[in-house]
Amino acid sequence: MFRPKWLLSALLLGVFIPIIVVSQIVGPPESNTDESSNTAAFDADEIGKVIETTMECHENPALAVSVVKDGKILMSRGFGTFGLDNPKKVESTSVFGVASLTKLFSATLLIKMLYEKTNLTVDSPVRLLLGKSFNMSDPLRTAETTFTDLLAHKVGIPDYNSLRFDPKFTRDTLLERLGLLQTNQQFRVKYYYSNIMYGLVSYITEVIGGKAWEKLVDEHLYQPLGMKSSTFASVANFEQKDMVVPYADVLGKLERVNPEFSRRWAQLSGSGSVMSSADDMARWMNFHLFDGKDAQGNEVVKAKQIAEIYKGRFFVGPETGKETRLSKYPVTSTDEIYAFGIRRGFYRGYNRLVHTGSTMGYRAYMALLPEPKIGVFIVMTGKDDAYVYRHPLHMYLMDRALGVQSWLNSSTLCTYPEPWENRSARSNRTLNPDVKLKYDIKQYEGSYYNKIFGSISVSYNKTFQALVITYGWAQWRLYVTSNAPSETFYGQGLGANHVFYINPISFLVGGENNNTIQGIKATGMFSAIPPIFSKKKDVNKGTPIFSNSALFFPMAILVCLIYKYDLHALLY
Question: Where does the record locate the signal sequence feature (predicted)?
Fold first, then answer.
């Protein structure tokens, strides 16, 4: 059969031209922020109105979202204002703290540095890098703890988060205290989410990279990805014009978080110091969805290193408020496996990578669907207890990006988890300053010591007419909440940490008549293994050195022997 030459050429071109074109698309397409080019199923203006409406039924002064699909930015917008007393509108370039979304930055950077600058792998023991300076609470953990254990929260040591109030506890000094951190759980058995271990990850990265963690993130991630608005709470200027003011709930009222708190609390860096914008986080999501490439298809992190991050490492179970099952809900949403700095699960049958972030004043959420290459980022100020806004909003945005009819709407985004489950009732605590102390004020005052946490002090404040407890750079006013069986207090934050409370705090009594304060049980500082602070003896009040009669006779005999030895040496 006769076929013209031009027809054969056209057929060949029809086969090979698409192959050539497709082969050139190796990374996410150049960011497209023209929302008018979005697919019909994703109406950014309509979705924006839904968010504006639902913000009114939640207590969030500021909010920002970005949604990406196939490398394009479907939506990147800000909502609300910079503060309760600042009418400036939030934009897609406005900067928020993303809290524990930082952990994926930490994991990504450590994996990159580990494989490019050492001959170690994620399964290598940490001691091979840090040597004898690395000591944990028992020989097994010291010898066997790997980088995987740190990144996937497998060490089994609870999070001693309140150590961050101690100015002596930093990335540089963390190793000195690491061996003191006790646990009552088995290694690689109990999941203990740990900000402290991610602080250690930051330090390890600095050892490998030879620079401060913040500089390494900037050089290896921020700059290559064009994340120009992003910074770190540990070094940020909170007065700069694009910085959204953090607000936290204090006894039922939204109050501004002191920048000094945000800066000091972020000093471990790798656990929660990243600050970013909706635009920059869209770039971050596309970087992960396209195997470590930037918008132009340039390799920033090797694909095999990115794949290492996503491997499931540890079953951690469901988190309250962040899971839906078909038995109760129209769809299934899970995240029960921890990888490196991110959790694995499913949404509508799609593989899902997800992590949340919560710190004083900021609430964040990021989820990725790798197969359809969809990413959703949400950040807000104010409160969002039990994820009642972030979680359903992210599922609503996922549905819209998938092009399916969402099971959520303006009404259910306000009532979630109702009508499917009852919303947990929350009652604001009422503090009564008139409840009298059980003992004389002088009994409480003094310095108390714990081997892990160090010293805390208790003093009477005449202005408040109340006891004040001081630990490091933080202070709390104590309110009596119970007198029986032991006297228990609620610690209301003061000064820089006024948004951070500790509860409960109990004074321990003993002595001959069981009426002498001898210590503090600080459950509110560390509930997993409540620390006991023993009251220090006041030598200025003439407390005998050998006040413990059990030690008197052995010490007396020792003194006599020393005296006899010295006398013998003198005479002979």
Answer: 1-23
Place of tokens 């992190």: 301
Nearest in space to 439 (alpha carbons), one of 395, 486, 394, 401: 486
What six digits make up the tokens of 6? 């031009």
Q: Are 179 and 136 in contact (CB under 8 A)?
A: yes
Bond from prior residue into 485 cis (ω within 30 degrees of 0):
yes
Q: Hey, CA dihedral for 365, 369, 375, 376, is it positive or negative? A: negative
Pairing of strands 502-510, 488-494: antiparallel
User: For residues 233 and 243, what is the distance between their CA atoms, to the nearest angstrom?
Assistant: 11
Residue pLDDT, tens place only, 206-221: 999 999 999 999 999 9
For residue 22, give the amino acid letter: V
DSSP assignment of 219-267 equals IIIIHHHT-TT-EETTT--TTSTTBPPPEEEETTEEEEPPHHHHHHHTT
Tell me which residue has tokens 């001691």. 127
This prediction has a pTM of 0.87
Return mean pLDDT, the chain.
89
Confidence (pLDDT) at 157: 96
**What is the token pair recorded at 572?**
């002979």
Of 115, 288, 129, whose CA–CA distance to 200 is shortest?
129
Strands (E) in 6-109, as ranges, are: 62-69, 72-83, 86-89, 96-97
Separation between Cα atoms, residue 490 and residue 448, nearest integer Å: 18
Residues in CB range of 205: below 8 A, 6 or more apart: 106, 109, 110, 113, 213, 216, 270
Of the candidates 401, 309, 388, 303, the one whose C-alpha atom is nearest the C-alpha of residue 347 is 401
Q: What is the CATH number of domain 35-415?
A: 3.40.710.10
Model confidence at 571: pLDDT above 90: no
CB 196 within 8 A of CB 159: yes
Compute the distance between CA of residue 554 and CA of residue 509 in angstroms, rounded to an integer: 27
Average pLDDT over residues 227-247: 95
Q: Which of 406, 402, 404 is nearest to 74 (CA)?
A: 402
Q: pLDDT of 127-154, one tens digit each?
A: 999 999 999 999 999 999 999 999 999 9
Q: Which of 244, 274, 291 is nearest to 95 (CA)?
A: 244
Question: Which residues are within 8 A (CB) of 389 and not within 5 positions of it... i.e. 6 or more apart?
Answer: 54, 58, 60, 380, 413, 416
CA–CA–CA angle 150, 224, 269 (5° rounding): 35
Evaluate whether 83 touches 245 at the Cβ level (below 8 Å). Answer: yes
